[in-house]
Specification:
The chain has three domains: 169 residues, no CATH class; 237 residues, no CATH class; 87 residues. The protein contains 29 helices and no strands. Helix 13 packs parallel to helix 22, helix 15 packs across helix 25 and helix 17 runs antiparallel to helix 18. The longest helix is centred in the middle third of the chain and has 35 residues.
Length: 637
């Protein structure tokens, strides 16, 4: 085995870092110039995109360390191998491969070697940037395709030859180069760049200060600020963990200082940051995939997704409010609140968000819209010397944005293996028939199964990976059971997102726990409890499509009001307080009222439930003794 001294290791490491910088910059420039030159044919574009980003996965996530310097040779070999395998497909044999008939024309021995090499490289890249979970699923899918004839019963599969499987996975657009990688190569990549430019412009800090000014003075102000700042930041970053780290650095210390326990401080940040992937205008990468799968424009998706996303954050907000009431929390001091004059003087930094929404609704493609929005960030930053971006800052934003896109690209490539297997074996049809027979046409039971599947498969995976893993199999099942297609896909997406805060593997909660210096498991349990009101949102829009803006305006308005008030009643019942604490009888009553509102489908029943609940609260929790508690009891927790 070749060994490398530590001095040589540092030298080679430096050269590989420069190589990563160069590849990332080339990738960014390549994608941007396509706005002028035009996007190539699908297979060509997807292979070229993977050619540029797969090597970065090995450079950014090396296995070599100062303790094991010799492994830097292995990292370098994988970089070279990935460049060779993808170049073979994208350039060397592209004309031949594009003209062959899949399933009819035989692959050459070189094709077989390069195809096998690419599959292995994608799996190793996924292991490094995502983890073993997805790799195990991919390998299981491949083994099922080859040896499924050994499985008895419904899941028996006659088996495919290795030649046919490799043909499907590598040399068509049904496997590695299928829809997920197509979305990653087009608008996802550019929107990641846009988010990175917006973050570097100072818009993120402005959002945090804006949330301080809006909620800082109220009871539990720091926790409410965490919810608002995470919503604002999430609307431009689309990443739960990045959201936790960026906003949590400000909000978590303030929450701890105001009296929240470290675990609760981290939980509030984790719960709120998770929803950033669901909030328009710039949702997470999985939302772009969803638009492609459902076959709707991204502009339609951000309109449809707006109300559920706002209900999600409203549910977290009221849960935090009642938690603050239960613990008798106070707001920030006046000297801790940013001045509105300072905030308004930098409001121009938010103009790119207006630009991206405007150009999307003007009919431009998401690809071109992201480019225009990216340029608008540079222009807006130039309006003031303190925010102006020079050439070096622009280059660094391009490079860092490309590096952020590596995980999404490698994840989508690996997910393509699962999609290819599902198409080859008919696994989705078999899964659908089994689940439908088990659920016996009970839609609620079916939704519950899909929720569990999304939460389990999402553990430890990025949201886009979790969504892709479950949607190819689960979405047709829900649609066949009568669920609206967009509602079915959004339902799966939501619970894929929620897996980031659901124990035992809760990535966002663990990141927040690290910042809060708290127990990861305790933090994730608190985050789960705070998120319970938000967990009902997917069920609400499945049963009440009005929340997806499907239906008459009056019906939509009634369901929005009903859903929002249900969030309040549910959070109140779970926390055991309204404007002050109350007993178990009131808790049960509030929970029943909340579920009643979730069930209600007309104005009269909704109004009646709200009126009765308001009356009960007024006459029994107003100035009167609370059931199970003495009138003069100290209600502070």
């Amino acid at each position: 085995m070749t060994t490398v001294s530590n001095d040589r290791f540092d030298l080679v490491k430096g050269w590989l870092s420069k190589l990563a910088f160069l590849i990332a910059l080339v990738a960014a420039v390549y994608h941007l110039q396509l706005v002028l030159s035009g996007i190539p044919e699908a297979y060509k574009f997807r292979t070229t995109h993977l050619l540029l980003l797969l090597p970065l996965g090995f450079l950014l996530k090396p296995v070599s360390t100062p303790e094991r310097p010799y492994l830097i040779v292995w990292d370098f070999l994988l970089v070279v191998a990935s460049l060779v395998a993808t170049s073979y497909i994208a350039f060397v044999e592209y004309d031949t491969l594009i003209m062959r008939l899949p399933g009819i024309d035989e692959l050459t021995s070189t094709d077989m070697f390069m195809g096998t090499l690419l599959v292995l490289l994608v799996l190793e890249g996924a292991r490094r940037v995502v983890g073993m979970g997805m790799v195990v699923i991919c390998i299981a899918a491949i083994l099922y395709t080859l040896y499924g004839y050994h499985i008895p019963g419904t899941f028996n599969y006659s088996g495919s030859s290795y030649h046919d499987l490799l043909d499907k996975l590598v040399f068509t657009t049904d496997g590695i180069f299928s829809i997920p990688l197509a979305a990653a190569a087009t608008f996802i990549f550019l929107f990641v760049l846009f988010g990175k430019f917006l973050e570097r412009s100072g818009a993120g800090e402005l959002f945090i200060e804006l949330s301080f000014a809006l909620a800082g003075r109220s009871r539990g102000g720091p926790a409410k600020m965490a919810v608002l700042s995470s919503a604002f930041m999430g609307s431009i970053s689309g990443s739960a963990t990045a959201n936790v780290v960026s906003t949590g650095a400000y909000t978590i210390p303030l929450m701890k200082k105001s009296g929240y326990s470290p675990a609760m401080s981290g939980a509030v940040e984790a719960a709120a940051s998770t929803g950033g992937q669901l909030l328009p205008p710039v949702m997470g990468a999985a939302a772009f995939l969803l638009a492609d799968f459902v076959g709707i424009p991204y502009t339609s998706l951000i309109v449809i997704a707006a109300i559920p996303a706002l209900l999600f954050f409203f549910g977290i907000y009221v849960a935090v409010h009642f938690e603050s009431v239960a613990q008798d929390m106070k707001g920030l001091n006046e000297d801790q609140i940013p001045k509105w004059s300072s905030i308004l003087s930098r409001a121009y930094l938010l103009l790119p968000l207006v630009v991206v929404i405007a150009v999307l609704f003007m009919g431009y493609t998401p690809y071109l819209s992201a480019c225009i929005a990216l340029v608008s960030v540079i222009v807006c930053c130039g309006l003031h010397p303190s925010t102006r971006m020079g050439p070096k800052a622009i280059v660094m934003a391009l490079v860092d944005g490309t590096k952020d896109a590596v995980m999404i690209t490698v994840t989508c490539a690996a997910a393509g293996i699962i999609i290819g297997v599902a198409a080859e074996t008919g696994l989705g049809v078999k899964f659908t028939s089994i689940v439908l027979s088990t659920a016996s046409d009970n839609v609620f039971l079916l939704l519950f199964f899909m929720m569990l599947a999304s939460l389990v498969l999402g553990m430890g995976l990025p949201t886009s990976a979790a969504y892709i893993l479950i949607v190819a199999i689960a979405a047709p099942t829900l649609i066949e059971a009568g669920v609206t297609p967009i509602a079915a896909h959004l339902f799966i997406l939501y619970f894929g997102v929620f897996s980031a805060i659901t124990p035992p593997v809760a990535i966002s909660s663990y990141a927040a726990a690290g910042l809060a210096e708290a127990s990861p498991m305790t933090t994730s349990l608190h985050a789960f409890r705070l998120s319970i009101p938000a967990f009902v949102v997917p069920y609400l829009f499945v049963y009440h499509n009005e929340l997806l803006l499907i239906g008459a305006p009056m019906d939509i308005a009634v369901q929005i009001i009903s859903g929002a008030v249900a969030m309040v009643f549910l959070a109140s019942g779970l926390a055991g307080c309204f404007h002050k604490r109350f007993g178990i009888a009131h808790r049960i009553f509030m929970l029943i009222a909340s579920f009643g509102l979730m069930y209600a489908s007309d104005f009269i029943l909704t109004a009646a439930i709200i009126a009765v609940t308001a009356a009960v609260l007024y006459f029994t929790v107003g100035d009167q003794p609370v059931l199970g508690m003495k009138k003069n009891e100290n209600h502070a927790s």
